[in-house]
Structure formats: structure tokens, C-alpha cells
């Protein structure tokens, strides 16, 4: 290897092995000067009074002052006013011979912009060892500070709407509650959940859904005062914190304004979209003492607003708390209800209107809770769906109904068809438990049409390929399907054409309103005519009076079910007949 000759003045090789020569004397000084000049770190020195004595090129770039301007000036020229105290402290420590290592702080660029730096300051001593000044190396840590800030923002803010997220809200809430207590004011929490957001997402696409959420955030913000906080909890859930309200009515007013603002049509991806909001309200301290309690109660009140028909605000109260606790209890107890034998089926007759004969039976699930007494399916089916229990429960219902039919069957006598209610989740389940039913019926010696599956109309409204495939499979195996609660969902009638449906069950809410010559009668008449044209039979639910029966018979409705004929009852040893 050819070694380039060291310039004159470079000292003796430090080691015979490497041949490296170390500079000495004035060369050494120049050598260090070159390092200082080319450094990316600001390297400066100052007297013990804080007067700058040297200022390198990096310092010029970092702080925007030339060496010629800074030398002789106090170092504090680059200190933000609120950091001036740091200089006194630093100089005191340096004078005592201490070093200050990697001290992270903020300095000012000449333009006024803040510069984040990590500084290391060491004493400069004279030949006798006396401290006569300080050398200071400042490293620009802006990139790292920026990266940390980005991480912090990501951890505390929602990327889509730029709103604070759940974590940030928790800190804000604690602060707000402390303030409220001190100022003897109340604080309120609004839990906002959009209604029908899923439909927008499903029908218009996720980009439209995102746009709608951003617009929602904006609208909520616009209804609030400075100091109020709106956070996004995830999905279509937002929380508003009103840190100082005079009373609950004021918070209710804000909730009402938010409802109004969110009800107005949206423009997303160039088209209109409509949503509304269900809002739960909890006021501190009356409705909850801790942030967690307030949040839980606002959430419960939001569910109550949904239950009462959405697009409204509800304030938490004790009855909501009770409902919610009961729901949690039922949800929990549902798991053991089947094993403990607390569930059973009752059967309600469905009669042919032309001759009054019993033709079908609807199997309806009952739960006798050991402590709470009878719990209705309107309450527990939704819970079973939420928890996924409905799959096992629905299968059990099928097994019970099939076993009952088998017990009733006698050679030579026709059995009434048994209708069982089936939840969408049972049809959507990838394992398709229901596809095993035809074989299970056959194993009991029952024909597939011994059963009819009732599927509520809302299931059909959201077209789902999984459900449609399951239905097609059941249909080809010979099971019949009825659309339950017809007229209550937001359906398109297309499914009547495309799915092989055997019957329509007109919802009780129509039957209830039937009167001679009224619009409900005309509507039921039209539904029946349409169903017949498509080859479907019609069952009217909830028939309670002889007049309803006569009117339904008059429009050609095929079957009726209701208290007029019989209430649901436990099975007897023979299939029920009507008196
Ligand atoms: P649904 O399928 O529409 O059942 C008819 C409901 O109306 C039953 O309520 C029945 O008792 C009631 N009903 C029948 N006739 C009359 C009448 O004349 N007047 C009045 N006021 N009501 C009448 P129930 O048993 O409380 O069931 C409610 C709902 O729970 C059912 O509505 C059904 O959607 C669901 N459900 C019941 N059993 C099951 C089940 O095994 N599986 C699933 N997935 N859902 C079930
Ligand atoms: Mg039904
Ligand atoms: Mg129904």
C-alpha cells in the first residue's frame, strides 16, 4: 500500500503499526479548527458571564446569526424568554467545574423559529486548571422531536378526522372534571353514534363513508364553543365533552343542536347521503362521579336513544342504568340457559282463513330465568345475536321443533307445518349449521316441508351473497321460507322475485290498524294480490278481533295467526286443534 506523505509539521507516527501521525502545535490547532468548521453540530464557546467567544459555521446555520454578529454578545440572544433561567443554572454548574450532558432544550433561530437542541457543555480551563469559560456543542434534534411529535399525534389523534382520540379524551376528561369541581360547575359527556352509517359505507363505499365521518366531525365542532372537546372513539362513534355547563338543560341543548346538524343531508362522492345520530348524555356529578362511570352511562343512554327509535338524545337515568345492568346480566346468563333447561318452545296456531282450520304452528322460544322470571324473546334474541349464542340457540330450536313433530306424527294423519324463526346470523354463519337440517329431518322420518323457516324482512333488505347461497341450498333441499314481519323493513321487493320464498307474513302493526275502507286495508289488499301473483301465500300476524279476521278474509289473505285463535302454548301430546 502506498502511503501518502504526511504534510510537514505532522508529528511522529503514534504507532509503528499504523503509521498515523498526530498533529502537534499550531497544526493541532488548525486541525481542530477544521473539525469545528466542518461539524454539523453548533460548537461555541463563551465566558463565565455568558458572552460568546467563538461561533462555528454550524452555529451560524442553526441560529441564523453570523460569528461576527454573535462574538461579544450574550449567549442568551438565542434563548427563548421562558428559558432564560437555564443560562444562570448552566453557568453556575460550569463555574463549579461540572459538565452538562445531552441537555435537551429549545433555542431560537434569528427568525424567531424554535430549534430543538441537545446540548453538552463543558468547562474550559486555563493552564492552572481554573475554569475560565464554557464550550458548548449543540445538536439539532428537530428530526427526532418531529418524529416523536408524529408518534405522539398518532397515539392521541385520529388520523381521519384529526380529532383527539379515546386516549386523549381520557386525559382531557380528568382535567375537565377536576376543573368543574373546583369551579362548582357541571361537566357533561355526550356519546354520539351515527344511525345507519353502515348502510352508507356498504352502499356508497368506504371513501364516501370516510368523507361523511370527516364532515360529521366538522359539523359537531361547529356546534361547540371553544373549550368544548370532541373526540372520535372509533368507527362512527364520537364523544363530546362539555367541560363547564351551568346545568343539564344546557347540555341537552347542545345535544339537540348536534342532532339537528347531523340530520341535514350530506354530499359525499358527489351524491347525497343521509344519516342521523343517537346521543347519550351523562352529566357530572349527578350521572356519574368518575370519567369511566360518566362514559359508561353516556354509552348506556345512547343505546336507549337507539332503542327508542334513533335520531334523538337521551339523558342517563337510573332506569337506563337498570335496563343496562339487566341486559348485562341476561347476556351473561344466556350462556347457561340451555344447559340448565331454562329454555322451551311454545306453539301458536296459524289457521286457514277460508275454513278456520289449523294449518301451521309457529314455534316461539321462551326463557324462564330462575331469578328474573320469564324473559321475552324480544329482549333476549337480540342479546343472543350480539353474543353469537344465537347459532347454538337456533340449532336447539330446530332440534326441539323437529323432535316435537316426530312425537306428534302418526301414520296416516297430516301434521301441521311448524314455522321456526331463524336469525340472519344463522344463515350467514360460514359453517352453515342450517344446511344440516334437511338431513336431520329425514333422519326423524320427516319431510323437508314439515318445517318452514321465518326470516325477518330486515335480513332480506341487506342483500348478502352468503345468506342467499344458504337460502338457495335450503330451498333445493325442499325447506320452505317465509318473510316475517313483512312491511317493517326497508326492503326492496327485488328479493321476492329472486329468492324462492313461499310465504309473506304481514306484520302485526298493519293488522292492528285494519278498519273497513281504510288505507291499511288497501295496502294489505295490494300486498296480498302481489304475493298471489308471485305464487306466495299470505299470513296475517297479530289477529285479535273478529273484524280483522273478516277484513283479511275479504281481501283473500290465506292464513291468520293471533290471540283471536290462540295464544302461544306449550305442546300437548297431540298437535293442537282449535276449539
Ligand atoms: P314473530 O316471529 O313476529 O312472532 C310473533 C310474535 O307476536 C310472538 O311474540 C307472538 O307471541 C306475538 N303474537 C302473536 N299473536 C299476537 C296477537 O294477536 N297480539 C299480540 N299483541 N302479539 C301476538 P314473541 O313470542 O314475544 O316473539 C317475539 C319475536 O321474537 C318473534 O316475532 C321473533 O322475531 C322472535 N323469536 C321468537 N322465537 C324465536 C326463535 O326461536 N328464534 C329467533 N331467531 N327469534 C325468535
Ligand atoms: Mg315469526
Ligand atoms: Mg312477525
Indicate the mean pLDDT: 90
Q: What is the rounded distance between the termini? A: 116 Å
User: Residue ranges: pLDDT <50 for 5 or more in a row?
Assistant: 1-11
Report the helical percentage: 40-55%
Structural class: alpha/beta
The main sheet comes to: 8 strands, mixed, barrel
Number of helices: 21
Bound molecules: ligand C2E, magnesium ion
How would you describe the overall organization of this protein?
- The protein is α/β, with parallel strands linked by helices and 579 residues long.
- Helix 7 packs antiparallel against helix 8 (206-223).
- The model is unreliable at 1-11 (pLDDT under 50).
- It folds into three domains: 15-140, 2-Layer Sandwich (Beta-Lactamase); 148-320, Alpha-Beta Plaits, CATH 3.30.70.270; 349-363 and 391-560, TIM Barrel (Alpha-Beta Barrel).
- The longest helix is centred in the middle third of the chain and has 20 residues, at 318-337.
- It has 21 helices and 23 strands.
- Helices cover 42% and strands 25% of the residues.
- Strand 16 (358-369) and strand 17 form a beta hairpin.
- The protein has an eight-stranded mixed barrel with strand order 15-16-18-19-20-21-22-23.
- It binds ligand C2E and magnesium ion (2 copies).
- Ligand C2E is lined by residues 348, 364-365, 376-378, 381, 394, 397, 421-423, 454, 456, 484-485, 508, 541-544, 561-563, 568.
Amino acid at each position: 500500500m502506498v502511503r501518502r506523505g504526511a504534510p510537514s509539521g505532522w508529528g511522529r507516527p503514534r504507532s509503528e503499526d499504523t503509521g498515523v501521525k498526530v498533529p502537534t502545535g499550531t497544526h493541532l490547532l488548525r486541525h481542530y479548527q477544521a473539525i469545528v468548521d466542518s461539524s454539523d453540530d453548533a460548537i461555541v464557546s463563551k465566558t463565565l458571564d455568558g458572552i460568546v467567544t467563538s461561533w462555528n459555521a454550524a452555529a451560524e446555520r442553526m441560529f441564523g446569526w453570523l460569528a461576527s454578529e454573535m462574538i461579544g454578545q450574550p449567549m442568551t440572544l438565542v434563548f427563548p424568554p421562558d428559558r432564560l433561567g437555564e443560562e444562570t443554572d448552566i453557568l453556575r454548574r460550569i463555574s463549579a467545574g461540572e459538565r452538562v450532558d445531552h441537555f435537551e432544550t429549545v433555542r431560537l433561530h434569528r427568525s424567531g423559529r424554535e430549534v430543538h437542541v441537545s446540548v453538552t457543555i463543558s468547562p474550559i480551563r486555563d493552564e492552572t486548571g481554573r475554569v475560565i469559560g464554557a464550550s458548548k456543542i449543540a445538536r439539532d434534534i428537530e428530526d427526532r422531536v418531529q418524529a416523536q411529535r408524529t408518534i405522539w399525534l398518532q397515539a392521541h389523534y385520529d388520523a381521519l378526522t384529526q380529532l383527539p382520540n379515546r386516549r386523549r379524551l381520557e386525559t382531557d376528561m380528568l382535567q375537565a372534571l377536576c376543573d368543574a369541581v373546583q369551579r362548582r360547575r357541571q361537566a357533561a359527556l355526550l356519546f354520539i353514534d351515527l344511525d345507519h352509517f353502515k348502510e352508507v359505507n356498504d352502499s356508497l363505499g368506504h371513501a364516501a363513508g370516510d368523507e361523511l365521518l370527516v364532515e360529521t366531525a366538522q359539523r359537531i365542532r361547529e356546534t361547540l364553543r371553544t373549550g368544548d372537546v370532541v373526540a372520535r372513539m372509533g368507527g362512527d362513534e364520537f364523544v363530546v365533552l362539555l367541560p363547564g355547563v351551568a346545568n343539564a338543560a344546557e347540555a341537552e341543548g347542545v345535544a339537540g343542536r348536534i342532532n339537528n346538524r347531523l340530520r341535514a343531508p350530506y354530499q359525499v362522492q358527489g351524491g347525497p347521503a343521509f344519516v342521523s345520530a343517537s346521543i347519550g348524555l351523562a352529566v357530572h356529578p349527578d350521572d356519574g362521579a368518575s370519567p369511566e362511570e360518566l362514559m359508561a352511562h353516556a354509552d348506556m343512554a345512547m343505546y336507549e336513544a337507539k332503542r327508542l327509535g334513533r335520531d334523538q338524545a337521551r339523558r342517563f337515568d337510573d332506569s337506563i342504568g337498570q335496563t343496562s345492568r339487566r341486559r348485562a346480566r341476561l347476556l351473561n346468563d344466556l350462556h347457561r340457559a340451555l344447559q340448565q333447561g331454562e329454555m322451551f318452545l311454545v306453539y301458536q296456531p296459524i289457521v286457514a282463513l277460508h275454513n278456520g282450520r289449523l294449518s301451521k304452528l309457529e314455534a316461539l322460544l321462551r326463557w324462564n330465568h330462575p331469578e328474573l322470571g320469564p324473559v321475552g324473546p324480544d329482549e333476549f334474541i337480540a342479546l343472543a345475536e350480539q353474543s353469537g349464542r344465537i347459532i347454538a340457540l337456533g340449532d336447539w330450536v330446530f332440534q326441539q321443533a323437529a323432535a316435537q313433530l316426530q312425537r306428534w306424527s302418526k301414520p296416516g294423519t297430516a301434521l301441521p307445518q311448524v314455522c321456526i324463526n331463524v336469525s340472519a346470523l344463522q344463515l350467514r354463519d360460514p359453517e352453515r349449521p342450517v344446511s344440516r337440517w334437511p338431513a336431520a329431518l329425514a333422519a326423524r322420518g320427516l319431510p323437508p316441508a314439515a318445517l318452514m323457516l321465518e326470516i325477518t324482512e330486515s335480513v332480506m333488505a341487506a342483500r348478502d351473497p352468503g345468506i342467499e347461497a344458504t337460502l338457495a341450498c335450503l330451498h333445493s333441499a325442499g325447506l320452505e321460507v317465509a318473510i316475517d314481519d313483512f312491511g317493517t323493513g326497508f326492503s326492496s321487493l327485488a328479493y321476492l322475485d329472486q329468492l324462492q320464498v313461499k310465504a309473506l307474513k304481514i306484520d302485526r302493526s298493519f293488522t292492528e290498524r285494519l278498519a273497513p275502507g281504510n288505507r291499511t286495508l288497501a295496502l294489505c289488499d295490494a300486498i296480498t294480490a302481489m304475493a298471489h301473483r308471485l305464487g306466495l301465500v299470505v299470513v296475517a300476524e297479530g289477529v285479535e278481533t273478529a273484524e280483522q279476521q273478516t277484513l283479511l278474509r275479504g281481501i283473500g289473505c290465506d292464513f291468520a295467526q293471533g290471540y283471536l285463535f290462540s295464544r302461544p302454548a306449550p305442546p300437548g301430546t297431540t298437535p293442537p286443534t282449535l276449539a
